[in-house]
Structures are given as C-alpha cells and as structure tokens.
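Please fill in the sequence for the structure shown.

STRUCTURE ENCODING:
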C-alpha cells in the first residue's frame, strides 16, 4: 500500500480501509487530493468545476457521521463527468449554451444513489460537447492524457479518464455511447467498467441515444469497481460462487473483431503477450471469430445515433443553433439522409445479434477484445477511433477495461463473483 503520508496515491478501497480504522480522516484525504490536483491539473486540465470549500465542508460533515451509521463507500471521493446533474454544482455539458457558474439545483439519479451511500461528490470533469463529438481541445475540454500532455485522453469522458489516471481522484463517473468509457480508460491506463444498458438509471444525464447511453465507472483497482457495482446493485440473476477464480483450466476467448486491420503495433504486441502469459498460467486460450453480420454494426450504430440525435438535440438547435458543434447540427438537419426504415432496420438487426453473441460467449469464462486500436494518438484535437467498442455497445455487452488492453494478469478478479460481474456475464 502507498504511504499514508501521500493519501492521494491510494486506491479508493485502500483509503476507505484507513478511514474505517481511523488512521485517516475524510477531510485529510480530500485535502491531499486537492493538493495533488493543484500540483498537476495545469497539465491534465481535467476539471471544469472544483469547489474546494464545498468539498472540505462536505468532508467534515461526513467525518462527523458515527461509524455504525456508515456504508461501505462512506467518504469515497468521486469525480463526475459534466453531463451528469449535481444539485450543488453547475452542469455545463461543455456547451456554450449552458455555460454557467450556477448549481444545477437537482441531482441525477446516480448522484442521489451515491450521496445516499455517503460518497463525497468532488467536482465536475471535462467532456466533449454533450458527450457526442470526438472533438478535443475545444471550449472547456482542453484535457490532456494523464501520462503525456501531448496526447489525447480519449473521449467523450476525457476528464474522468485523465483525473483517475493521474491519481487526482480514485474513482469517477463517465458515460458511454460508443466507447466513451473504455477508450479514455485504456488511453489513461485505468480500469473502466461499462455495465449493461439500463443497469444504472440515466435520469438527469445528458441524452444522445436512448438506445445506447450508459453510465459507467473509472477506477484504479477492481476492488473499487466492485464497491461501486454493489452500491448500484448490479448483480446477476443467479448466485455465483465466491471462490477465488483460477486461471488454470479457465476457458478464455480472444476476439479480434472485424476491425483488426486497424490494430497498431502496440495493440498487436499486447495481444500476443496476453495470450502467451495466460496460456503459461494454464488457461485454455482460443480465438473467437465473429459472424460476418457483426461487420455491419458500425453502420447500424451510426444510423441509431443519427436518428436519435435528431430528436435529442432539437431543442438546443432551435434555441441556439450557432452555438452547437457542426456534427450536432448535422444530426438535427439529417445531413446523412437517414430514412426511418434504415433506423428501424438498425434496431432490429442489432437486436437479432444479441442472442448470437450470448451463444458465442457462453462457452467461455471471459472474452478478451481490444479496447482501442493502439496507444493514445498525438494531439488533442481528436479523441481517437472508437471502432473497437462499437461492436459491443450495440449488442449491449458488459465491458471492463483492465490495464493493459482488456487484461491485467498480475491482478485477476479475486472471486468468480467479481469475474462474472466485471468481465461481462449477465
């Protein structure tokens, strides 16, 4: 465990243990994080609203709660992507329409859940405009990669990935419509978890696609993801074994998808290294090929976004068209010429593939697939290619990013319950 003299280095689970044993107060932990942010955020630029006095006041209030009245995440600092309503902080969506310093006045459903569990809502983190375009380095989203300020942090959950990756916050909320959790998690070297669609209420979150938008988590440990999954009551229908998961004899599939031709040298090397290491640990590693229909998901995904974007952004378009990114204007104007028939066919075809995926995946303990085509690209203007994860967003597959790639064999899930919940079995 990192030194208690630098609490900002701790994972959320490590810090909560010290808080429970009274070796660390919530206020001292929050102060350490704020000091680290002050020293580092001029490089990452992850935060768009950070109310220091409010954070410390709320931390002191949480410290005053008797220990027998606390939940497992009591005092856990959580950063929030700035498309999620917070009653005591502004929500600006990286939009020139909603730019404000006034609190939203109401909490979204996920924030209500976290506050009720005693979480310390820390501040608001950068996003692309309404969590839509791949445009970086614009308006409030000037965020850079946690490990190299000349590279993109990914998007649309840019600040969430960068802040967690830079140890500025132990965990953060993000959203995903087409890779917006898994890409920043991968680029910034964090764990990322996108639960199945509908597992967490989206009330109070910016809407692009009712069919795809999903709230997810960033963290630096599996234990922290597990804590958040418990708070949101994300669980399987069937009880699973709590025995430690063993790699020996495990059935592991490696699925390149139809976009493997885009994979760079870094992804290819990590891919082969992971297969070799897992095989050496006794896992039964197999290649999994997707049927040809899965190659069409990118097109169907684009049709769903274009169709649902027309309705989601109509109000903003009619209010202040000139303040919207050209891509958002294009959705409302239907610049792609999408027909209603094409949109309905996209829905139906993706629904048809869900049981196909379930049948393919059933024979394996977990499936490994690339989270990104390669390392974070140079430059901040574009948040990177999202093709790797779109194929699994449309079938509504649970996705977990483990540094590096989707795999971290030195720290596997501790139990079958964690493995099943965090690696995609529903």
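FILLED IN BY: designer on duty
SEQUENCE:
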């Amino acid at each position: 465990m990192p030194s208690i003299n630098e609490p900002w280095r701790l994972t959320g689970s490590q810090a909560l243990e010290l808080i429970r044993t009274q070796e660390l107060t919530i206020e001292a932990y929050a102060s350490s994080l704020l000091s680290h942010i002050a020293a580092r955020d001029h490089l990452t630029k992850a935060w768009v609203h950070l109310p220091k006095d409010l954070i410390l006041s709320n931390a002191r209030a949480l410290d005053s709660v008797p220990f027998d009245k606390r939940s497992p995440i009591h005092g856990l600092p959580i950063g929030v992507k700035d498309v999620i309503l917070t009653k005591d902080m502004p929500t600006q969506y990286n939009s020139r329409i909603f730019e404000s310093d006034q609190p939203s006045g109401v909490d979204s459903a996920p924030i209500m859940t976290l506050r009720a569990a005693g979480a310390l809502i820390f501040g608001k983190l950068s996003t692309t405009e309404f969590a839509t375009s791949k445009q970086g380095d614009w308006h409030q989203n000037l965020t850079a990669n946690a490990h190299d300020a000349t590279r993109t942090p990914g998007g649309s959950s840019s600040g969430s990935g960068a802040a967690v990756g830079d140890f500025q916050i132990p965990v953060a909320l993000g959203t995903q419509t087409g890779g917006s959790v898994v890409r920043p998690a991968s680029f910034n070297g964090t764990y990322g978890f996108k639960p199945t669609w509908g597992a967490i209420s989206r009330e109070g979150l910016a809407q692009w696609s009712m069919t795809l938008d999903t709230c997810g988590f960033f963290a630096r440990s599996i234990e922290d993801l597990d804590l958040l999954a418990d708070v949101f009551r994300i669980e399987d229908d069937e009880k699973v074994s709590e025995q430690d998961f063993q790699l020996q004899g495990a059935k592991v599939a490696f699925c390149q998808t139809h976009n493997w031709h885009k994979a760079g040298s870094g992804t290819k090397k990590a891919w082969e290294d992971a297969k070799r290491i897992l095989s050496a640990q006794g896992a039964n590693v197999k290649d999994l090929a997707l049927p040809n229909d899965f190659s069409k998901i990118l097109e169907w995904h684009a049709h769903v976004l274009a169709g649902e974007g027309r309705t989601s952004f109509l109000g903003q378009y009619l209010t202040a068209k000139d303040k919207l990114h050209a891509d958002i204007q294009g959705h409302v104007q239907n610049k792609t010429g999408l027909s209603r028939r094409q949109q309905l066919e996209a829905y139906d075809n993706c629904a048809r593939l869900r049981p196909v995926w379930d049948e393919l995946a059933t024979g394996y303990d977990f499936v490994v697939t690339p989270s990104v085509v390669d390392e974070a690209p140079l430059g901040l203007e574009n948040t990177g290619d999202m093709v790797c994860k779109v194929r699994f967003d449309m079938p509504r597959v649970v996705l977990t990013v483990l540094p590096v790639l989707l795999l971290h064999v030195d720290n596997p899930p501790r139990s079958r319950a964690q493995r099943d919940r965090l690696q995609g079995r529903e």
